[in-house]
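Predict the structure of LacI-type transcriptional regulator.
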Amino acid sequence: MPKKVTLHDVANAANVSVATVSKALNGTGRISAATRRQVVATAQRLGYHKSTADTHRRSGLVGLITSDYNGRFSLPLLTGAESTLGASNHAALLMSSHGRADLERNHIDQLAARGVDGLIVVGDTTNPRPPLKPSTTMGLPVVYTYDPSTDPNDCSIICDNVGAGAQAIEYLLSLGRRYIAVIGGSEDFQAAKDRARGAQRTFTLYDFHPVEVLFDMWSEEWGERSARILLDRHPHLDGIYCLSDEIARGAVRGLLAAGKRIPQDVAVIGHDNWFVFCSNSHPTLTTFDNNIPLIGKMAATYLIDAINGRPHRGVFAVECPMIVRESTDPMRRTALDNSDRIFRKR
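Done. Here is the predicted structure for LacI-type transcriptional regulator.
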């Protein structure tokens, strides 16, 4: 009968102390990520198995790694995640990779060295991303948010941009608008492709066609310029679906400058519910909210499930609710959301 591998065997093979082996395998104490990896690799090579008591020892910490440099996506997601993590006696550690793969790996090393129980990876583009390498995660469960993993066996949670695009056109058609255009930013973004695809799905369903679909930049300047282009080419234009609030705010400015009334002459819909653009000036924008706090809550729930041995696999889409404001409803008068008002709400 083969001899059972002990902590002493792992320590001797890895040339470290028994205490260091214990810390590395249980995710406790302050040891470097490199040492932890060395110990774990040695234990696996020798066939060491932790006892049942060790297996259930948890740190109560979860790492959130974001490429979102200004907090626009990561902070609402953290808010949603914390409500669920707190109920499970977990706390979150937030670190920013600034979109750099080397910094992302370094942060994971640091979090692993501190014994986190799992990772939530927060994107900011909606573009599919390569999964973290097993040599990086070292067995930690991972949930990807906003930017899905390209591996279908991973757990990814995203916004339902296709559904939002479909609903936008259905709503404009329900208002009696028949000359509808779509304005997007760069087609390199998956969000642009998905929102436009959803819009086209509804056009096809009702046997309509957009008067034009334009792509260029995610900017107010492009929104204003594209509105002028559309009015020149399509004088009967009566509805615009913009794939971001930033574009929508520019389009509104261009339409108003041309003497059009919003929404009486042209109804405008945006996407993102970013208060800086959608509710900081009149007319306030009808838009779609990306429901990021709910994505965070769902990510935390799925990560806790994975930590407890019940992983979820595949891509899960969260509905983007539509928020109706002045740019599509002439009877509506919406209070402006400026920074002072937001701070006073706290």
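DSSP finds 14 helices and twelve strands in the chain.
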